[in-house]
Amino acid sequence: QFQLVESGGGVVQPGESLRLSCVVSEYTSDIYAIGWFRQAPGRGREAVACIASNGAIAFYANSVEGRFTISRDGDNNTVHLQMNNLDADDTGIYYCAAALTPWYVGSQASTFRDWGLGTLVTVSS
Q1: Tell me: the pLDDT tens digits for 31-41?
Q2: Strands 119-123 and 114-115, how do they pair?
């Protein structure tokens, strides 16, 4: 089982930016992709973005495309989520997860096996 640890959450005002990081304990060839998901209070888990292990972008949610950028730092086993122009609807707990089969679907949480504990993002004026 792979360990994933998120960091970088915090409280920001609308229009500001945050950069989340997901450190993977050991980035081996067993990992096909890393995805970011979020869960707002009282809502279900939502897929945000996903990057394949070869660096290809597998998915962006319509609600974040153009504002969020997912990237991978291979030297440090880290996947980042740069979030710009944040608004209140971006508030929630952000989780990263690892897909361990080639049949993953970037927008489907059920196709990701190993999960971090999450980092809280609050956007409020």
Answers
A1: 999 999 999 98
A2: unpaired
